[in-house]
Amino acid sequence: MNNVKKSLVTGLVLAVFALICGTLLAVVNYYTAPIIKSNQVTEVDDETIKAVYPSYNTSDYKKTGIESDDKSIVAISSISKDGEVVAFIYIINNAGRDGTADDPALKIAVGVDSALKVTGWKFLVNKDTGAKKAGTFDFGMVGESSTDAFDSIAGSTDTSDCVKEVFDLALQRAKADFLK
After folding, report:
1. Verdict on whether the full-model pTM lies above 0.85
2. How far, in Å, CA of 117 to CA of 178, rounded?
3. Residues 163, 78 share a domain
4. Are 31 and 55 contained in the same domain?
5. Angle at Cα 153 formed by Cα 104 and Cα 167, nearest 5°?
6. Residues of the chain with pLDDT under 70
7. Same domain, yes or no: 71 and 6
8. Is 9 in the same domain as 77?
9. Which of 41, 90, 107, 154 is the most exposed place for a label (fewest CB within 10 A)?
10. pLDDT tens string 115-130
11. Residue 65 backbone phi and psi in degrees, to 5
12. Separation between Cα atoms, residue 157 and residue 174, nearest integer Å
C-alpha cells in the first residue's frame, strides 16, 4: 500500500511539473512567435528568379530579401545590377478555387522590372483544377505593365480571376517598391 501511495504522489508531482513547464512554454511562444516572424525575411531562390527574370545570373546581379507586410506576398527579392534595383521578384499565395488562406491552391512567382513590366512568372504550387488545365498557358502577361492584356483560360473564369489577382498584386507592389 505504501508503494502505491508513493507511486501516486510521484506521478502527481510529475504531472504538475509537466503542466507548469507546458504552460511556461506556451506563454514564451505566445510572446516570441510574432517577434521571430517579423524578423524573418525570405529570399526567393536563384532557380525561381532565373525562371521569372531570364537575364539573372549570380555574377552580375545581387539579390536582397525584403520584408513583406502583405500576408499574400510570402517572399520578395530585389534584383540589383551595379547598385541599381532592376527588378523585384514576388512569390504570392492565392487561395484559388480549391484552396484556403492557410492552404493556398496557387503560389506564383512573378518578376517585374524597373519599367514596371512583367518579366516572367511561374507556378510554384498549383493545386487548382482550373489552373492545371492551363498547363503552359501564358496569360499574355509577359512584357505587360497592367492586367488589361490578361488572357483568361476559357472555361476557367474563377481560376483566371485568381491568377489575374496575383499579377495585379505584383504590379501594384512593384510600383510602390520602385517609388521607394
Report:
1. no
2. 12
3. yes
4. no
5. 55
6. 1, 34-43, 129-136
7. no
8. no
9. 154
10. 999 999 988 888 776 6
11. -75, 145
12. 25
